[in-house]
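Quick one: structure for this chain?
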Amino acid sequence: MKIIITGAYVIGTHLAKLLSRDHEDITLIDEDIERLNKINTEFDLLTMQAMPNSIKALKEAGVSNADLFIAVTPDENLNMTSCMLAKALGAKKTVAKIDDAEYTEPQLHEFFSNLGVSSIICPEMLAAKDINNGLKMSWVRQRWDVHDGALVMLGIKLRETCEILNRPLKDLCGPDDPYHVVAIKRDGDTIIPGGNDELKLYDLVYFMTTKQYIPLIRKMVGKEHYIDVKNVMIMGGGSTAVRAVETMPEYMHAKIIEIDEKRCEELNELLRTDKTLVINGDGRDTYLLKEEGINNTQAFVALTGNAETNILACLTAKRLGVRKTVAVVENLDYVSMAESLDIGTIINKKAIAASHIYQMMLDANVMNVRFLMTVNADVAEFVPQEGARVTKKPVRELGLPRGMTIGGIVRNGEGMLVSGNTLIQAGDTVVVFCYGLNMKNIEKFFI
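Got it. Here's what it folds into:
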């Protein structure tokens, strides 16, 4: 597959790394030679110094044969324009990163498609959705819904109150039990578990279940004493904070602490005053946090542009008694450090955006691909075609590669867990979890 990426910034470089592991034919275009030189030494791809909207450069890059053209510069207008040009010059699919959430409205999809922009992503909107998913369940590190919750994947840190520690999984979740354990993160290692594996204290465990059994999971892991989130304190009033507050459930109320006085004025004009209080100050100020009611806050969300600041602020909030903390960590080098310090939910906008783009290069009918940074694994929803390999035998006879597991399926809107005897049908939505595997090798089971 031939892929052209314009913009050697954070999303573009992360995406290049993600795609280069699949040995795709990748060309990265950027006007800054220094950014390109950094990329060129790290990944197996071609680079070109040029403006992304240069017709001559696009032709030289082979855009007429491109299967996917990705525009992820910081300039949304440049991204839209270069996608339109690429499509007109022969690119099969195009995707543009934008900042204006209005462009993502479903009714505008056909409009932009006719202009030559196949897909639009807004990283702030995607991050806001992940933030709110994390806030809805204070006892969960990460939640991932399939078909509006017909199936649910929950990432949970196990503490001393967990009831299912040190017992073989074959004794805990058999074919008839309403949950499966699909992955375990332990001491920096990812485990795709078998029946003899056990859950240990401080493991980060990913459970697959259906919505009605979430209370059972909560009881088993000993998290019933966690208070549901109603009051949220947010440090940093950027665009991600605005999107998160605008899409929060009605029962949640937020306080945004923003250090820039002018931005505070803008936030007061943008946001509903009955749901959000804007405070001018430094979110690292312990006295200010106490004064603004941190003791009556169930969640603290750090959304500044500085990863170290966000991590330290979350640690401060935890020390002051807040159970649920969320930190935006854009520097991937800091993700493992944030995990080791037991920061709760970690949000990385470039990884989220790259995951959404990644699914466009797959030939199978695949939706909602996500790269889970915490376990260095991919999870995706595949819909098998008629006659696909995955539909011909029960799951136990499919010969699935090591590192791949099927977490569950959705059939006719109903979520179901999978056992060895399950026979998958064409049209099912199949949740696949894979570690250390090329997603292109997984999709062959579904086409």
